[in-house]
Amino acid sequence: MRPDTAGFAADLKVGSYGGQQVLVWWEGDNNAGIGSGEHVIMDASYRVITRIAAANGRKADLHELQLTDHGTALFLADAPVGPSPAVGRLPALPRVMDCAIQEIDLATGQLVLEWHGVDHIGIDESVTAAPTGSDQVYDYLHANSIEEDADGDLLVSARNTSAIYKIGPDDGRDPVAAGRQARRLQDGPGTSFALQHDARRQPDGTLSLFDDGQAPGHSRAISCVSTSRR
C-alpha cells in the first residue's frame, strides 16, 4: 500500500503496456463529475512507469482511459468553451463544456488525434436542462466512455444526450486538425436506454452498456444490436 496524491483517484483497472500487465488509474481534481488531472501507469512491482497528460493546455478527465494495441492512449479531456449561440429550444449560453477525445502516442507523447464534441454534436441533443446562472457551464454532452470498434471507428457514450456515437474518419484531412464525423447509434427494439455508461463492443458484435435509467425506471446492464444514422 502507498498513499496517492492529495487529489482524487478513480478508474483503477488492469491494462497492457509494453507487452506486460499494468495497473492504470486517474488522479486529479473532481469538479461535479468532471475530472481535471492525469492518468498513471504502474507496473507489477507497483512502480510508476509513466503519467499521461493531456495536450493543448487541457487536463485529462476521470471517466476513461483506453491503452490501444498500437501504442497509444485514448482518453477524454474536457474544458469549458463559449459563448454558444441560441439553438432550437436553447437560448444563447455563455459557456458550454466541450468533451474532447485525445489520443496520445505513449512513446513520444505526441498528440495523434483530437476530436471536439462541440464541433460535431449539437447542444440541443442534450436531455438535461441548461443552467440558468451566468457563471455556470452547460455540461450538455458528458462523454464517459470510449471504445475502439472493430472497423477502427470509436464508440463514444455521452450520458447527457442519452446516446452512443460511432465516430469515424471524415474526408481524409489531418485528423488532429479536422476531427471525425459522429453518427448517432439507435438502440434496437426493446433496448431503450438513458444516461448510460460503458458502451463496449462484444466479440459477437453486440453492444453492451450500463443503462442508468430514468425515474421511475431502474439501472440495468443491457446488450443490443446497434444501427447508425447521420
Give a quick rundown of the structure:
With 230 residues, this protein is mainly beta.
Could you explain how this protein is built, in words?
3% of the residues lie in helices and 47% in strands. The strands form four sheets. It has a five-stranded antiparallel beta sheet with strand order 9-10-11-12-16, with no helix packed on it. The protein has a four-stranded antiparallel beta sheet with strand order 1-2-3-4, with no helix packed on it. Strand 1 (8-17) and strand 2 (20-31) form a beta hairpin. By secondary structure, it is mostly beta strands. The protein starts with 7 loop residues before the first strand and ends with a strand. It has helices at 117-120, 175-178; strands at 8-17, 20-31, 34-42, 48-52, 65-67, 72-81, 96-105, 111-116, 143-148, 154-158, 163-169, 180-186, 197-201, 207-211, 220-224, 227-229.
The CATH architecture can be named as: 5 Propeller
Unreliable sequence segments? 171-179
Mean pLDDT score, rounded? 85
Overall shape: globular
By secondary-structure content and strand pairing, the structural class works out as mainly beta
Q: Which keywords apply here?
A:
230 residues, mainly beta, Tachylectin-2, Chain A, five-stranded antiparallel β-sheet, four-stranded antiparallel β-sheet, 2 helices, 16 strands, globular
Secondary structure topology:
Elements: E1 8-17, E2 20-31, E3 34-42, E4 48-52, E5 65-67, E6 72-81, E7 96-105, E8 111-116, H1 117-120, E9 143-148, E10 154-158, E11 163-169, H2 175-178, E12 180-186, E13 197-201, E14 207-211, E15 220-224, E16 227-229
Antiparallel strand pairs: 1-2, 2-3, 3-4, 5-6, 6-7, 7-8, 9-10, 10-11, 11-12, 12-16, 13-14, 14-15
